[in-house]
User: What shape does this take?
Amino acid sequence: MLDAVVTEARSIGMLRLTVRTSNDNLDAFRFYQRRGFRLERIGQGVIDREREQKPGIPLRGDYGIEIHDEVLFARAL
Assistant: This one.
């Protein structure tokens, strides 16, 4: 599916693709880095602020890591 997104993005002239995950999502960290994405930015407290609007966002992730921050990865196309 990611390959299809990359192909479509290139076909419309996009030069860069950015993806977002949370600080606890270690599986996503591995997934994206293996596919050429690099760490772009950490938004400290972004998930905490989103939780104020959506209280259903869990406090901890699959590995018991507290969820607080947004992590962006980017890849040149």
